[in-house]
Amino acid sequence: MNKRLTVAMDGPAGSGKSTIARHIAGKLDYFYLNSGSMYRAMTLLSIRKGVPPTDAPALIELAKHCRIDFADNGQITLLNNEDVSDALRTPEIERAIPDVAKVPEVRREMVKQQRRIGKKGGIIVEGRDVTTVVFPEADLKFYINASVEERARRRFIEFKENGIETTVEQVEADLRLRDETDGSREHSPLRAAEDAIVVDTTHMTIDEAVDFVVRQIRES
Hints:
Blueprint: E1 6-10, H1 17-28, E2 31-34, H2 35-49, H3 56-64, E3 68-71, E4 76-79, E5 82-83, H4 91-101, H5 104-118, E6 123-127, H6 130-134, E7 140-145, H7 148-161, H8 168-184, E8 197-200, H9 206-219
Parallel strand pairs: 1-6, 1-7, 2-6, 7-8
Antiparallel strand pairs: 3-4, 4-5
């Protein structure tokens, strides 16, 4: 495999796509772009500015005048040159992000930034519409999925490790709401692209999922 490919991955929250994409980028020496972190950064910005997630005009203005970048090969998210990585995964962000992310003009602004970062190839991009909207001509597409119960268990463990108090029942309820919002929004709904390879990680370890996807990339 000599060509530097553009590999796109979509999937719901907690499916493992972020971890899988990050590991694959490391194995292949590709750049890792977590598009979801862009929407999390936008949501954080709206909270800091006191903009309700339902105030679309104000959200659009924030999106037009912010810049989101990544450092340390995608490990660090920069919002207007500030490292906000540690502030992006909280229940407050989880609850507000669906309303922020469903605003069409906000999504268009984020897509511009994603394409700016990914234009050179040699990149693993993951999110919720990267296979269908952001990079529809990607060399390879994957849809990473898992049962909602397993996804809730994973996200609950993540919160617990970060000292965030919640319950697995609340996490599952939030995920179900997020799934419904992501899948039913009018602009760029979450769905598997017709030419995407579907990977169900419910009963897979991270290593198994990573090995499977890496084989597909190396054989392409």
